[in-house]
Write a structure and sequence with these properties.
The chain folds into two domains: 1-35; 44-136, no CATH class. Helices cover 51% and strands 0% of the residues. The protein contains four helices and no strands. The chain has helices at residues 2-34, 53-73, 83-90, 105-113. Bound molecules: heme C (3 copies). One heme C (HEC) binds at residues 40, 42, 44, 46-50, 52-53, 56-57, 60, 63, 81, 85-86, 89-90, 134.
Length: 139
């Protein structure tokens, strides 16, 4: 009876140890993920962004919303901030899109931060065959 309970105790300890190891691994994984947004692919050869990466990460929602207002409500033309330009630089090399695949620029980050992106029902998120990279028009 004593022997059996000692065995039982050892088995429980082993199980606890396995649990603790799993828990540590999970904690490390969660901390690593919380450390920052996913790595998004950028293509510097297509040209520089409207601002540095940190500014873009912080300000792109405001930039887009303000420009939308200026264009749609105030009728401004030839804007510097245009979704088509974002797409031309940020579309994936294979998908030609910022939203088609899970790894595409806008979608990868937005899925991760769980912020819905309701722009590409109307706006083109994928380059058409007629579209050109800004740095290589007519190619
Ligand atoms: C001419 C090309 C070009 C255009 C146009 C452009 N980008 Fe960029 N974008 C880049 C490049 C290159 C980087 C990487 C810059 C760096 O790492 O310093 C970048 C970085 C970013 C980042 C930060 C990504 C990260 O986490 O590292 C965001 C967000 C972003 N762009 C959003 C936009 C949006 C929104 C638009 C349209 C309003 C836009 N970009 C237009 C080329 C462009
Ligand atoms: C590196 C991560 C990242 C990338 C890449 C990124 N976004 Fe965002 N975006 C965010 C985060 C985080 C928010 C919410 C934060 C906030 O509202 O300030 C946001 C908010 C937005 C909003 C406002 C949403 C709303 O409901 O008001 C728009 C519009 C937007 N992003 C468009 C884009 C577009 C278009 C692209 C691709 C060209 C893009 N984002 C790429 C992280 C990203
Ligand atoms: C119901 C359709 C619709 C939706 C959804 C929509 N837009 Fe637009 N957007 C338009 C139209 C139409 C224009 C005006 C185009 C023009 O006059 O050239 C426009 C213009 C813009 C412009 C001005 C410059 C440009 O890119 O052409 C911006 C910036 C913009 N929208 C951002 C957004 C963002 C960001 C979202 C998502 C949060 C969004 N829009 C969702 C229809 C839409």
């Amino acid at each position: 009876m004593v022997a059996r309970s000692r065995w039982h105790h050892a088995a429980l300890l082993r199980r606890w140890r396995a649990w603790l190891v799993t828990l540590c691994a999970l904690t490390i994984a969660v901390v690593a993920l919380a450390g920052g947004p996913p790595q998004v692919t950028v293509y510097p050869e297509r040209g520089p962004c409207l601002a540095d990466a940190a500014t873009m990460r912080r300000d792109h929602p405001k930039m887009l919303h303000e420009q939308k207002h200026r264009t749609v409500v105030l009728g401004e033309r030839g804007a510097r901030v245009q979704l088509a330009q974002c797409v031309s630089c940020h579309a994936g090399a294979q998908s030609h899109s910022v939203v088609a695949s899970e790894r595409d620029f806008c979608r990868a980050c937005h899925d991760y931060v769980a912020v819905k992106l309701d722009c590409f029902h109307c706006h083109q998120g994928t380059l058409g065959t007629q579209s050109a990279w800004r740095s290589g028009e007519g190619r």
